[in-house]
Amino acid sequence: MIREASSLQYDATQGIAANERGFGFLEEVRDMRAKMASLESRLQKVEIHRQSHLDLRQRTISTWVRDALKKTSEHRREDLRRLNKGTIHGGDIRTDTMVVTERYKTSSTEWRSFSTLYGLTPDDVENLDYSKCCGSLQALNRAASILFDKNSTILPTEEMRKTREDLVALLREGKYEEAEEISSTLCEDESSVAENE
Questions:
Q1: Alpha-carbon distance 105 to 28, whole Å?
Q2: What single-letter DSSP state applies at residue 13?
Q3: CA dihedral 66, 67, 68, 73 (to 10 degrees)
Q4: Hey, what's the torsion of the CAs at 96, 99, 104, 110, to 10 degrees?
Q5: Phi-psi region for residue 174, left (φ > 0), alpha (ψ -120 to 50) or beta?
Q6: Given 17, 155, 163, 171, which is the most exposed site by the fewest CB atoms within 10 A?
């Protein structure tokens, strides 16, 4: 122990004292933590994809039961309406980011027009901390759902366009708390948009 003490070095920037092996071990631990964070991020993306895939398969099975077995009920009809609106025709920024980045070239129309739907580029979305902006992403999904539903490239009201623009700016700046505060006001009632037409 006395011999090791003489080989201790103090690193003022890290605020620790260790021998060479200790510094090496510390670096390995930091590398492992960085890898774990990366894996957690990947796992979160896989879970998002899994949920979307389950919704698609639920729609397929429910449609088959309705059409082939002639089994219909209000509950099944409501499930199919929800799945058609949300899963098939609705916005899903995280899954759509995966689709665009994995299936299209950056020069494609799909990649370049992604921001028309969501206000953010696929790269912007990948750089977000999803755990801090869940409500904001849901708001951008609602806005994109309106664009999908209306087969349009612009939101129907100036207020919606301005709110989405503000929300996107806050997300790009990493101001998640402020973005979450205004996210509930973006397209908060999609049905009123349909009624006003």
A1: 36
A2: T
A3: 20
A4: -20
A5: left
A6: 17
CB-CB contact of 80 with 63 (8 Å): yes
Alpha-carbon gap, residue 166 to 183, rounded angstroms: 10
Distance CA 1, CA 16 (A): 18
Report the pLDDT averaged over residues 35-59. Answer: 82
Contact 187, 193 (CB under 8 A): yes
State the residue for tokens 């973005």: 179
pLDDT tens digits for 169-195?
A: 999 999 999 999 999 999 875 544 444
| Distance between CA atoms of residues 24 and 60, nearest Å | 54
> Can you give the three-state secondary structure of 119-169, one letter per residue?
CCCHHHHHCCCHHHCHHHHHHHHHHHHHHHHHCCCCCCCHHHHHHHHHHHH
